[in-house]
TrEMBL record:
This is ABC transporter permease subunit. It is found in: Cell membrane. It is a multi-pass membrane protein. It comes from Ferviditalea candida. The keyword Transmembrane applies.
Amino acid sequence: METSRTLRPLSRSTSLAWLAGAAMAAPAVAIVGVLFIYPFFHSLIASFQNKSGNWTLENYSFIFSMYVRDMLFTVWVSLLSLVILLVLTVLLAGYLRLHHSSWIEFMFKIPLFVPFVVVGHAVRVFLAPHGTLNSALVFLTGNWFNPDQMPSIAFSTAGLVAALVWKNLAFSLLLVLGAFRGINNGYLEASRNFGAGTIWQIVDIMIPMSKGAIGVASVLMFTSMIGNFSIPAMLGNSGGNQVLMMDLYYQIVYQNNYGAANAIGVISYLVSMGAAIYYLRTVSRA
């Protein structure tokens, strides 16, 4: 049995509303196309070409033979920093939700106004062998503490993680604290009536009711850490593994190997895109 459908012409008001919506979305779509989609496909095509313009896989073969440990190191540092960041963010946001303190909130939001390169330099000065932290320990302990015998935290993975966590803490706190403050006080008062302390109010009430905001913060912070260049450039790698952005910089500036640099860029795009797909499939539907 055949069925026929009659398409109804759009009314004038509906057409105007559709055009207005398209006009409002056009700048955002154009920015995504110019700043993300076009560079991605340009890098993707160039990554499969050699210097003569011939199609090849040698760029990917080269970077996987040279930088596979750096790829794993980049993901490891980003995930470790993200876990530490989320734990600190949830605890701080939960405390500030229950015990309002403008001074504490301001202190932890200061990194929001500090550029990445300044954060890298500040951590370098603070955690260097003869930096601010060790100098203070020498002053407090006298001859008991010798900074020359201590490991250099500033130029290690620990220093890099500390810098990434501190820099991203302010923005993450801003997102999660906003979600916590949107929770109705009645839920928190009810849990307190049953004897719940600060930790259990955070774990049982705030986190389950703010999964969306915590997920958004996780995705944004992870992609920010994956693509960060300024902080690793300031702290160095102490002769060990380094993040992919430093490898990309080395291939462009010192080797003029744009094919390998584009291949590294594509790998970074795909890792970041994985976080974006997770956000679209899970967090945005929550």
